[in-house]
Amino acid sequence: MAARKAPRRVVPRCAVPRSVVVTGGSGGIGREIVARFLADGSRVVNLDRLPPPGRRHPRTRFVAVDLLDVPAIRAAFAEADEFFEGRAPDVLVCAAAIGQTHHLLEVQPDEVDRVMGVNVRGTLFCAQEAALRMRGAGAGRIVVVTSVAAYQAWAQEPLYNVSKGAQHALVQTLAVELAPFNVQVNAVAPGVVAAQSQGMSGNRARPEILRHYHERIPAGRFCTPAEVAEAIWTLSHATYMTGQALTLDGGLMANGLAYIGTLKDEVLARLDRTLPAPPAPLTAPGRRGGGRPGKRR
Questions:
Q1: Is the pLDDT of residue 292 over 60?
Q2: What element of type H or E holds 269?
Q3: Is residue 5 assigned to a domain?
Q4: Residue of 197 and 287 predicted with greater confidence
Q5: Does residue 210 lie within any of the structural domains?
Q6: Which of 109, 147, 173, 222: disulfide with 194, CB 3.0–4.6 Å?
Q7: The domain containing residue 215 runs over which residues?
Q8: Burial grade of 277 (CB within 10 A; 0-12, 13-18, 19 or more)
């Protein structure tokens, strides 16, 4: 069964261009996040280990930083201050994350330090640096890219699961701590995204695993990086929403007993045979006659 296509998006612009810091802006999802904010006229600083491919946009600056290195994070935000000409960042998006494919019994201490260090410790200190500046400005928005793995464990990715659960708790903690400064903190929790970053588990690229996830998603397709970016952009305008996670999974978490294998096609074929044909669509204003009856796909 062919995967469904993502709908075309319309890109509104902000009335006032904003200053935005994105961690992990060189990856597949990160590049879409940067592009989404550039589309509304914002200036964007990308904090990542490696620069993004292609030519640099004049309203962006890349700063090489390892999120395991807290002094380097602080220096990176100082460089962002220079790029923003002393203006506090209006938005921080924490999209940087890593994961590894292991069974729990194979996990080593240095791997725990690395995954938790980037995904949790690095996110915390980036949020701290942004919040110090947002406090002075009187407002700010922080959005963290977590995962449905915070609520539902993924096999062979124990450290990633734990780190995403910790990120979810961190988002709620930041929301409470920063609310007095008019800083809203929320998360986007994607399900399976149609992008594979170098730092993520290669387990998800296996055909049988992709097929399994595809069958479990009621929407019939994977989330696109552009849809993750759009959700982040929307949360960056929140005014009375904080400490929340927006799940972006096409119904994955809602689906208990999935249509596995050919079951979905069999059920749809039976309904086509047994149910009355759908009614003809209403005539559009200004047009004569009715349309052809719709056909179940």
A1: no
A2: helix 263-274
A3: no
A4: 197
A5: yes
A6: 222
A7: 19-248
A8: exposed
Residue 231 CA to chain centroid, in angstroms? 7
**What are residue 47's DSSP bridge partners?**
23, 63
pTM over 0.90: no
Whole-angstrom distance, CA of residue 123 vs CA of residue 95: 9
pLDDT at position 1 is 44
Q: Looking at residue 11, what is its pLDDT?
A: 46
Contact of 142 with 89, CB cutoff 8 Å: no
What pLDDT digit, counting tens, does each position of 40-80 carry? 999 999 999 999 999 999 999 999 999 999 999 999 999 99
- Residue 116 CA to residue 19 CA, distance in Å, equals 28
Q: Assess contact for 117 and 68: CB atoms under 8 A.
A: yes
pLDDT level of residue 264 (50, 70, 90 thresholds)? confident
Average pLDDT, the chain: 87
Give tens-digit pLDDT for 95-114. Answer: 999 998 888 889 999 999 99
Q: Is 177 a member of any domain? A: yes
Structure tokens at 166: 């910790």
Q: Going by C-beta distance under 8 Å and a sequence separation of 6 or more, which residues neighbour residue 50?
A: 26, 64
- Calpha distance 81→122 (Å, rounded): 19
In this structure, what DSSP letter does residue 55 have?
Answer: P
pLDDT at 243 over 50: yes
Contacts of 232 (CB under 8 A, 6+ apart): 33, 36, 93, 95, 143, 145, 188
DSSP 256: S
Domain count, the chain: 1
Residue 47: CATH number of its domain: 3.40.50.720
Name the pairing type of β-strands 245-248 and 183-190: parallel
Return the closest-CA partner of residue 25 out of 55, 49, 59.
Answer: 49
